[in-house]
Amino acid sequence: MIQITDLNKKFGKLEVLKNVNLNCNKGECIALIGPNGCGKTTLIKSILGMVLPDKGLITFNEKPIKKEYLYREKIGYMPQIGRYPDNMTIGQVIEMIKQIRNTDQELDEDLLKAFELEKMSDKKMRTLSGGTTQKVSATLAFLFNPDVLILDEPTAGLDPLASEILKDKIIREKEKGKLILITSHLLSELDDLITEIIFMQEGNVLFHKNIAELKSETHEHKISKAIAKILKRTRKNEPNH
Amino acid sequence: MNRIIKIILLDILKNKIVLGYTLILAILSWSSFALEDNSAKGLLTILNVILFTVPLVSILFSTIYLYNSSEFIELLLSQPVKRQKIWFSLFIGLSSSMVFSFLAGAGIPLLINATDSVGVMMIIVGCLVSVVFVALAFLSSILTRDKAKGIGIAIIIWLYFALLFDGMVLFLLFQFADYPIETAMVGITGLSPIDLARIQILLHLDVSAMMGYTGAIFKDFFGTSVGLIVSFLLLSLWAVVPFYISLKKFNRKDL
């Protein structure tokens, strides 16, 4: 569904993405992990067309996304730090996005109800806590039943209850055969969600593996341990690093 | 496009600054007509007020508004909206609200008190100057991510066109007073939208008779219909070119 070939991006002198190649298909739930500043968010923003790559090609449903915008109808995006117009209320923001999307398809208001956002719909965005802002972001990402969900650190800042609600929702959407891309640092949270894992380091994709494959290869049951094992192995293979 | 423009316009209307600006323009225009006994003098006073405040408010308000909409722009970009459309909508929203407040504030007293062609001319020029400085605001806000720097650039642009440029022109005039530079002066005028607007109006007032030889040369050029069209085209270029550059930059910007 999303294909990335030879993607390069530099911010000034800093090379954020170096020849990234990826292939994401329908029905997969992919975890994008890696240390801070390894280019995860830049990669995600490139898919959304917010960051424009220097080189390389991104295709969505076999169509290059360069200079396109309609493909974003099929993407729900939850940013790491949601930034919203300060003086708008929750209700106004949601209403505005609805107006902009202008679809007549049925809206998915599960999260709106589960997070009880309707009760606070006249609170201004400026006054919201980080967690509540995340709830708004999550609601907006799921609202239009998109085929692809891109979630950047979805559970960071959410309380355990809310994060459980969100995880359940992600699992339900996964079962509908959607492509879900999650970045996270909390590997333990991802255990029961994901089917594939992409590990990035310093702008490179270190590996892209199926979870079952990964577990059987390393003889570990927990993702975090399996990854630690692989990382150790790759370090041994490259003594210069 | 209409939906986004509507959202932006409503947001600007909620901002009381535009209403205050309209009110100030109205007070200034009404009082200058009330104070002067003939409408030509009143026009001259308004001209100076317009050429000072309209550019300042247009460029400052628009620059700050653009920096404050960075969240809004980011939010829209993750939605199925064309990049160009966002920038165009912001431009249309901002420039139309500036033009409307000019029309409401200064346009109405002008239409009532100066019913001749100069009044109409002043309204057209005022609208154009508003749009020009909104376009310059777009340019200054895209040049840097730093809000303080961007607003600084906007103020410098305004200072340059409102004060420094005139000073430089005067300096040149005195330095080269012995040479026939009158024709060159016509060209130099085109380098500043405020001067274009000022000369455009002055030549339609009786005071142009007092401007001497240079005034006569100006009248020879700007007084003809060709000159009129050229100067309006130049003014429009002052709006189109900065906005076009900012649009190109916005299309390549990483958010």
UniProtKB/TrEMBL annotation, chain A:
Chain ranges of the ABC transporter domain: 2-227
Entry keyword annotation includes Transport: yes
MF terms in GO: ATP binding; ATP hydrolysis activity
SMART domains: AAA
InterPro entries, alphabetized: AAA+_ATPase, ABC_transporter-like_ATP-bd, ABC_Transporter_VariousFunc, P-loop_NTPase
Pfam families attached to this UniProt entry: ABC_tran
SUPFAM superfamilies the UniProt entry points to: P-loop containing nucleoside triphosphate hydrolases (SSF52540)
Gene3D superfamilies with a match to the protein in the record: P-loop containing nucleotide triphosphate hydrolases
Keyword set, alphabetical order: ATP-binding, Nucleotide-binding, Transport
UniProt superkingdom: Bacteria
Coiled-coil features, chain-numbered ranges: none
Record PANTHER family: ABC TRANSPORTER ATP-BINDING PROTEIN ALBC-RELATED
Protein name: Copper ABC transporter ATP-binding protein
Automatic annotation (TrEMBL), chain B:
GO CC, one annotated term: plasma membrane
Molecular function via GO: ABC-type transporter activity
Ranges that cross the membrane: 12-33, 45-67, 87-112, 118-139, 151-177, 221-245
Record key words, sorted: Membrane, Transmembrane, Transmembrane helix
Protein name (database record): Nitrous oxide reductase
Organism: Flavobacterium suncheonense GH29-5 = DSM 17707
